[in-house]
Design goal:
Blueprint: H1 6-9, E1 12-18, E2 24-40, E3 46-54, H2 56-64, E4 69-73, E5 82-86, E6 98-99, E7 108-111, H3 114-119, E8 127-128, H4 136-141, E9 149-154, E10 168-176, H5 178-181, E11 188-191, E12 202-205, E13 222-238, E14 245-259, H6 261-274, E15 286-288
Parallel strand pairs: 2-8
Antiparallel strand pairs: 1-2, 1-4, 2-3, 3-7, 4-5, 5-15, 6-7, 9-10, 9-12, 10-11, 11-14, 12-13, 13-14
Amino acid sequence: MALIPPGYLNTVVALGSASKEGAMQYTATGFLYGYPSGETNESGAKMYRVYLVTNRHVYEKAAKQEAPLQARLNRPMGTVSKLYSIPLKGTDGSDSWFVHPDPEADVAVLPVNTRLLEADGIEFEFFAHDVNTFTLAQAREIEVSEGDGVFVLGFPLGEAGDERNYVVARQGIMARVQDWAKGNARTFLIDASVFPGNSGGPVLLKPELTSITGTKRNDRCGLIGMVSSYMPYREIAISVQTERPRMIFEENSGLAIVVPPNVIQEAVEVAFNGRNSTGESAADLQQVGK
């Protein structure tokens, strides 16, 4: 019995850069998100614009270092994955990435040319905004609450696999979500172990077969947010002699900050409304190696 739809694993993208020695180091996670374009194809099926979503701090670190991120996506089983370089600037000199207009919102979005991925034989899926994502209204409707189960997908500590992306899935629970659900916060907390490399990874609401009498049961797995960072726990070592701080120890508290879907959607809408006349990215993914 699968609690995570298998296609969700193909939404997750390993992000990183090459070391001075040329070896890839995967330092973050991203995922593909689909926003309805308002158009249909020849068979009448709804069409989507697809975006790569990750944290603002992941993009800004790459921009500060003037080192474009590289994204690894899977090809069919039995073949190695494919690397793409993400230019920081488009051919017209504009930024390739779109960031949320609120500087405190940890979201960055890149339009993706899916025709390129299809031509390269990439196996990819995306979280459709109107199908696979919980809106704030839907979260309220099903009464999302503390203790509800979640899955965290990503590549903690760069564990992306040797030849292709193998997603690491971990479980957790909603630790504090009422402030977001009631409209008083722009993030919420989960109790889950996340580490460097999990940044930008999708957080899924876990389906449950049972519920307490008088509460609603959630029977679907869907996107409920994106990992931003873990909350650090700090201890200060005080000198016995001078009684002044000598050293700060920082540990992972086990609580993680999550960007909710409505904030992700706001950043996607910025990218959707800011796309160029062809509807494609200002700077398409560029192939790296074979």
